[in-house]
Design a protein that fits this description.
Elements: E1 2-8, E2 11-18, E3 21-25, E4 35-41, E5 46-47, E6 56-60, H1 64-69, E7 79-83, E8 88-89, E9 94-97, E10 105-107, E11 109-115, E12 131-138, E13 141-142, H2 143-149, H3 153-156, E14 162-169, E15 178-183, E16 186-192, H4 200-210, E17 218-220, E18 228-230, E19 235-240, E20 244-252
Parallel strand pairs: 6-17, 8-14, 9-20
Antiparallel strand pairs: 1-2, 1-5, 1-14, 2-3, 3-4, 6-7, 10-13, 10-18, 11-12, 11-17, 12-14, 15-16, 15-19, 19-20
Length: 254
Amino acid sequence: MRIARFAIDESVSFGVVEENTIAAVRAHPFGELTFTGHRFPLADVRLLAPILPSKVIAIGKNYADHAREMGAEPPAEPVLFSKPSTAVIGPGEAVAYPEKLSERVDYEGELAVVIGRLCREVPAARAADVILGYTCANDVTARDLQKRDGQWTRAKGFDTFCPLGPWIETELDPSDVALTTRVNGETRQDARTSQLLHAIPDLVAYVSQVMTLLPGDVILTGTPAGVGPLEIGDEVTVTVEGVGDLTNRVVARE
C-alpha cells in the first residue's frame, strides 16, 4: 500500500494511491485506515512530503564505500545525527541553495524508514512491528560547512535540506532494493540496501535505545558512494526500487 499526503483545493489530506488515483483517508495513517469516500485523479492533486515528523534521525557512514570516500573507516556502530523537521520538503519542491553561507551543497540519496507507532527500546527482531513503511530521501548537505564545523548540525539542518517522498510504501522488503540518485538525468549513485553496514532492524533498535520514537518519525538509513555537488538549476532524483522517484530542483535561497 502506498500512503501519500496531498493537497487539493487548498485542503490537505492523507490518501492511498491506487494506480492513477488517490483515495482520501480520515485523520492520520497510523492504525486502521478509514476512507472518506472521496477519490481523486493523481494528476489533479499535489503530492506533499508524505509525513511531517517530529524528528529526523539520520545514520552517517552506513555504506562502507561512502565512509571511505569521505576519508573514514567504516564505523563499528551506527553514527547518529539529526535534521530538524523544518528541513523537510516534498516531491517537486525546491531545495534552496544558501549561497551566502555555503559554496558546496551535495546530494545524498537514501532509503528512509517511517515509524508507525510510539516505541522505545525495540529489539531488532521486533523492528518491523513499529515501522509504518519506507520512502525516498535526500540528505542534502552543505559539505564545506560539515568539514569546517567538525559536527554536522548546521551543514545538515538548512530549511529544505530533507526532501521526502513521493509516498510511504508499507509493503516493501527493504533488505535488498536498488537505490539510485540521478542529477539532470545522469546516474551519480547506484547501490543496493544489502550493502548497508547496519541493517534496518538494527538501526531501529539502536536509535530507540537512545530516544523515544513517535509515529511519523523518520530514520534516514545512510547514503552510498557517489555523493557530489549540486548547482543552482540542477534537478536531482532519488529512486528506491519498489517505492518510486523523489525529484527536486535546486534554486537560489532568497
